[in-house]
Amino acid sequence: MTESVPTYPFDREEALRPPREWGELQEKCPVAHVRLPSGDTAQLVTRYDDVRALLTDPRFRRGGQDAARIATTQDGGLFARNTMTITQGEGHRRWRRLLSPSFTIRRMEAWRPRVQAMCDELVDDLLAAGSPADLSVRLGLPLPVRVICALVGAPAEDQDRFAHWSRVMLTLTRHTQEEVQQAYEEFDAYVSALVDARRAEPGDDLLSELTQISDSEDGRLSHEELIATVRALLLAGHETTSNMIAIMVAMLLAEPERYQAVIDDPGLVPGTVEEVLRLDSTLSVVGFPRVAGEDLDIAGVKVAAGSTLIPCRPAANRDPRKFADPERFDPHRDNANQHLTFGAGPHYCLGQPLARLELQVVLGTLVRRLPGLRLRDGAEALRLRTGLLSGGLENVWVAW
């Protein structure tokens, strides 16, 4: 029996190409048993409508102590400690009601000039250092962490600490339980002190705003909820956006006509970003598992109550039932923004306006200032990051 259950994530022939198993399972076995890095088994769901149902139907809850473990650490890599009150049920709905006004597209757009200034400074440094360069190190990693530090009012000199905590907390197989525990404790202590400081002396940052939020119905965010909020901002806002910047550049330069199209028409920046988000196959391969709250039928497959299911969003984003000619890169695609990269339903990513803004700023800046950008070694040299829940690429070496 154990030999017949494939190991997940699946291997792939090239970093930017999805594993062939996704398409095969989508057609023949849309709910398939797989073995996770922890050794536990779960059921992988690959079709768009089914994945969206997992994300939106209240009969599927998000993880929990009885879910299959993802990572090799004792806690299973669910990084949900001290956050159950804001990730489940009414507590989650209350948390989102309190935070949502601070994460509207309009509010995030107000950050565009600051993000642009940070991006320009990093590109200045990139050009000064000269070709070739690792775009992940020079731009992808530092920009989002600078943005997060600015958002929460953390000193710029602490950026490296934030980046370290993020990588360790998102471990799949790279770090021990002790290392993960230490990262959580250090991060929580740091943010706890930051929250106290912002409550006492508010600034013009987002954390200061969140400490002052008070609602007649929902009250205010507790100290613990604020820490959990900053942690969510770090893990989603830094690590995933950092990886996506590198993925975006690699995906466009792997087929240079995609990059050239944006050079020729900068108005394609938003549509290009959406197609990158839809077609990326490296980032959200595992994600948050769901647990069936009752016996259910998914795509004709009986799923027992208590079963752990993995909603494979990148496979769903390539489902021909939803996206015509799904493998084609089309910045003019009408429904590209219906991808599930940011999730759907009650857990739809609050920070997606900021993530989109950062990607748009980076792409617009690069095509304007580095029209001769190219992959130094070709797409075949790209390698996947392994051992972390956030996936992505190891390095993206570019030249110009």
From TrEMBL:
Signal peptide: none annotated. Keywords: Heme, Iron, Metal-binding, Monooxygenase, Oxidoreductase. InterPro entries: Cyt_P450, Cyt_P450_B, Cyt_P450_CS, Cyt_P450_sf. Its cofactor is heme. It comes from the Bacteria. Pfam families: p450 (PF00067). Transmembrane segments: none annotated. PANTHER family: CYTOCHROME P450 BJ-1, P450, PUTATIVE (EUROFUNG)-RELATED. Belongs to the cytochrome P450 family. This is Cytochrome P450. It comes from Nonomuraea roseoviolacea subsp. carminata.
